[in-house]
Amino acid sequence: MNTFNEFNIKKQLRKAVDGLGFKKPTPIQQASYATILAGSDFVGIAQTGTGKTIAYLLPVLQDLKFSEQPQPRVLILVPTRELVIQIVEQIEKLTPYLSVRVLGVYGGSNNIVGQKQALSEGVDVIVGTPRRLYDLALSNLLRLKFIKKLVIDEVDIMLDFGYKTQLKNIFELLPLKRQNILFSATMTSYVDELTDGFLINPVKKTISISGKPLDNISQECYSVPNFYTKANLVKLLLKDKTAFSKVLVFVGTKTHADALFELLGSESDVSVIHSGKEQNHRTRSIEKFADGTSNVLIATDVIARGIDIEKITAVISFNTPFYPENYIHRIGRTGRAKQKGRAVLFYTEKERGLKETIEGLMNYTIPLRKNPEGLEVSHQLTPEEKDNPVEEIKLSNKSSLSESGASFHEKSAKNSKVKSEKKSYKKTLKEKFKKPIRRGDKIQNMKKKRKK
After folding, report:
1. Is 172 helix (H, G, I), strand (E, B) or coil?
2. Of 289, 293, 329, whose CA–CA distance to 313 is shortest?
3. CA Rg value for the chain
4. What are the structural domains, with CATH classification, of the chain?
């Protein structure tokens, strides 16, 4: 399929697509359009940056008829506030010539009173994070029994964030007769479990092998001893204004993100974003990075899927992620729209096992670079590095990762002790009185005890 004109798209929607400059549908868009439009349950697996959002929005909007019904008929669930905002904006860009009421809802500093007011005015498509959706449903202002299509985007990261309970709670409020549409960058065991649990004979389309990075992204890695030496290496790399003109730096924790920002923050063109920041700050940081006001954005994985910014020249993984799939999501922020991208991974000796797991997932050995001349090796350690001596983490393959869950280290001696058997009340009484306790026996036993 060469153009969107070959899709069965109504003229109002086609006019918007043409206005956005979309010429040729991506493979995931080609594979999903007809199936979703036909009403079948659908599971789409495709890498970040391959057009998954448009892949489900086009058929959903094509099938959405005008209605004055106040309750929404399409529910789109995503893991982060940034993705809610991004998808709402995309829907608005696709529907300037259609009468479609869309509302984005999410928690944090956003006013739930304002969201309730918007709901009362009528909505066709609601986009939200699971917790806020469920809160609104419990208020009985949002009634999910009218939902005809359920879309869950970024399913894998949704489950990684611990939204499984919220999802099940929402499913119980939805009508049984509905179309389910799932999109994910990877097919993990958690996604399989969710798919098998509530989809009916879904059509599955996998466009790219899970874990295989895009060919236009060059990769390299550096062995660095600790946090502060990593920070010094970032400073050195950023001096190359051509290769690192627009850089996304992923850091493992909010604390480390703030600490790195303080170390780089003397430069006015550095921003930081993580789940601990207020929504206004997060939005402003992304806007500054998008328009070029800042050329470095420090971020945590929690908002990895919510950043859809073009022309990111490089992604630096300041830490090696515990989940190898997260590395794929990180580097997928660069090399978009067939542009060249660059991915740089830092790892300590403790993170070596995690790096090898990533390489096993990709079936690719990331080229090791020598640390550049002039790199200052710091002997200063963070509190975590002081408390946790260097110990190599060994993960042989992806299957061991899925079995181990979030914690890959061996249990400490304290936690590995076998707990003593907890005796039942009945067993305790039996041992104390040397015979089964029945009605009337307690008095006799007490008499025997006094005779001793």
Report:
1. helix
2. 289
3. 27
4. 4-206 (3.40.50.300), 217-404 (3.40.50.300)
Q: What was the pLDDT predicted at 419?
A: 45
Mean pLDDT for the stretch of residues 389-411:
40
- For 123, the 3-state DSSP assignment is coil
Q: What is the mean pLDDT of residues 382-407?
A: 51
Q: Which of the four pLDDT bands, split at 50, 70 and 90, describes residue 79?
A: confident
pLDDT surpassing 80 at residue 162: no
Q: CA nearest 330: which of 47, 7, 4, 55?
A: 47
d(CA 377, CA 231): 10
- DSSP run (H or E) holding 135: helix 130-138
Average pLDDT for 413-440: 51
Strand order in the sheet with 270-273: 217-223, 341-347, 314-317, 247-250, 296-299, 270-273
- Higher-confidence residue: 71 or 330? 71
DSSP string, 316-372: EESS--SSHHHHHHHHTTSSGGG--EEEEEEE-STTHHHHHHHHHHHT-PPPBPPPP
Q: Which of 93, 109, 3 is nearest to 308 (CA)?
A: 93
**CA angle 148–154–157, rounded 5-degree value:** 130
- Return d(Cα 50, Cα 7) in angstroms, integer: 18
